[in-house]
Amino acid sequence: MTTAHTLGKRKKIALVAHDRKKEDLINWAVGNKETLSKHELFATGTTGKLVEEALDRPVKKLLSGPLGGDQQIGSMIAAGEIDMLIFFWDPMEAQPHDSDVKALLRLGVAWNIPMACDRATADFLFTSSFMNEEYKRVIPDYSTYLQRKI
Asked: What's the pTM?
């Protein structure tokens, strides 16, 4: 049995970018300023500060990724407090907190939230009609997983 969670017209969007991807995310955000202005934004540390300055609008800033910001966003995803994740991660450089990065991506998939890890996918998400209307997101049923015996 699955359940559903309705995403409202105003989405709660988490923005995350590794150091070498911050400029790309900021450029993308500026190009999507009008769409982003209709939604509530959350971001890890420095990324949040840069997005807030570039868009001249408030962003709820969490800790820096390596200091727990990725985990904070993951927790918010699990609690149903984040509707969408835009995470420009660097595939060419290992991160000191790679385990946190992997956990964040896993939670995005586990809770079936729209997620973009590159500019092209983010563009596709943001041009979807679902960005401006309610969307019923199916949440997988993990009861069998939770009840299994070790």
From this structure: 0.92
